[in-house]
Amino acid sequence: MNGCAGTGDDDRQRAYIVEFRPVLIAGPIGPGSGGEPAGSEGAGQLATDFEALDCTQPAQGTALVDAGPGSSVVACGTERGERFGLGPAEIDGSMVESVAVARGILHDGAESDDYVVSIELNADGTAAFASMTERLRGLDAPRNRLAVLAGQEVLSAPTVQVAITEGEIAIAGQFSEKEARDIAAALSDNGG
């Protein structure tokens, strides 16, 4: 996995936790171009950390994202070259019922070269995810986005347009089979 946590093989091997967090701030990968997260506990420190985070410098992100699930964090994104200020984790591996990895399917029905991680949440996870997506869908950008944080990188941060109540989630990206299996293993190892 590439991003501000590093790009070497050692970084790809390290274990990480997968969490779903609300996006409070989003901006370009370089420092100094962010905004203030309104109505967020610890917003001042989060904004300061966000402004200092430079995702163009791979080693820098590590010190700014080592926090527990109840804390706000900053992290670099792999999907579109963004950096993020994120609220506390609302969904984690302990709420996962099952995880599967498969090749993605293209619009024409053919298999993609990329892999998808399919997640089925347990009852607590389904309720938490429904509540989270219901709340986020009514907010202004960027606070209407949901980040999938794996270790120290945001894998995906889609805009929430509708509440998702079924408890089934697909994480799609340009994942190799190994990367997708690493994500699935992280979800499974954390209670899934």
Walkthrough of the structure:
- The protein has a single domain, classed as Gyrase A, domain 2 (2-Layer Sandwich).
- By secondary structure, the protein is of the alpha+beta class.
- It starts with 8 loop residues before the first helix and ends with a helix.
- The model is unreliable at 1-15 and 36-42 (pLDDT under 50).
- It contains five helices and nine strands; from the N terminus they run αβααβββββαβββα.
Properties at a glance:
three-stranded antiparallel beta sheet, 5 helices, alpha+beta, five-stranded mixed barrel, disordered N terminus, Gyrase A, domain 2, 9 strands, 192 residues
Summarize the structure.
The protein is an alpha+beta fold. The protein has helices spanning 9-13, 43-52, 61-65, 123-137, 177-189; strands at 18-28, 73-77, 82-86, 91-92, 96-105, 111-121, 146-150, 153-156, 168-175.
Rounded to the nearest angstrom, the distance between the terminal CA atoms is 21 Å
Number of domains: 1
How big a fraction of the residues is strand?
25-35%
Quaternary class? single chain
- Our count of helices gives 5
CATH topology: Gyrase A, domain 2
Cα gyration radius (Å): 16 Å
Give me the strand/helix succession.
HEHHEEEEEHEEEH
- The overall average pLDDT, rounded, is 79
Query: Major β-sheet, in short?
Result: 5 strands, mixed, barrel
Share of helix among residues?
A: 25-40%
